[in-house]
Amino acid sequence: MSRKPIIAGNWKMNLLQSEAKALFEGIKSFTKDFTAQQLPTIVIAPVFTSLSAVSSEGCDCGCGCDKISIAGQNCHWEKSGAYTGEISVEMLADAGCSYVIIGHSERRQYFSETDEMINKKAKAILAGGLIPIICCGETLEQREAGVTDQHIATQIRAALNGLSEEEVAKSVIAYEPIWAIGTGKTCDSQEANRVIAMIRNVVKEVSSASAGDSIRILYGGSVKPSTIEEQMSQSDIDGALVGGASLKAESFNEIIANTMKVSV
Ligand code: PEP
């Protein structure tokens, strides 16, 4: 089963609008030489205040395709109302987003997001016609205690609860071991592939074989230009969610280029 790879950049709480635009231009200067078919699906997730600035720059290849998709880094599940500081799926769509990252470990850890909240967000995102990038991953303590698979399976079952097969098939999961995020330590590629294959089996069990074969599952955690080829050569890794290395056009473009050497 061939799944189009995704290279997604999570810019986190970084870059002012002018810096975000400059980074976007730097990525476009690479993508302009390729068709959308030649490229992986490229997604960038700027801060909310830069979404419109970046999406209004759009694709300028002249063929009407969308080579760089925009993602929100979070959303609320309600459409509108008294939720100070939150943003709805419709608002993200209005600002040019087609994806939303949910359940990032930083949101779970610092903002107390629960599996139940992540499930509500996934449902709202899909109902609004956008695609959730659902993050999961274990702490170092959980890995050392031997409960990685059990913990991640629980996160995935909860996140996908109540979604139709079609909704699951179009969703994206990012496996991000917490101990590998922003630390420079990448998870061994074979081990990341093993966990991702396990996640795919959980998806097949809770949804359907075909949804499990279609869903794209990314690896995230200190991905760099030097690691991506080996990661993308694994059977079940369908791409990467990149933090630090997505903040410079040079390294992000090299990750895209190295991905194209082994898949797309
Ligand atoms: C992330 O925050 O999703 C991430 C993977 O960060 P980094 O690539 O910096 O480890």
Key attributes of the depicted protein:
single chain, 264 residues, alpha/beta, TIM Barrel, 8-stranded parallel β-barrel, 12 helices, 8 strands, globular
Task: Spell the H/E element sequence.
Answer: EHEHEHEHHEHHHEHHEHEH
> Please, what is the average pLDDT?
95
Shape, principal axes of CA atoms = globular
User: What hetero molecules are in the model?
Assistant: phosphoenolpyruvate
Report on the biggest sheet: 8 strands, parallel, barrel
- Show unreliable segments: none
Helicity, as a percent range: 40-55%
Q: What is the level 1 CATH name? A: Alpha Beta
Classify the fold: give the CATH topology: TIM Barrel
Radius of gyration: 17 Å
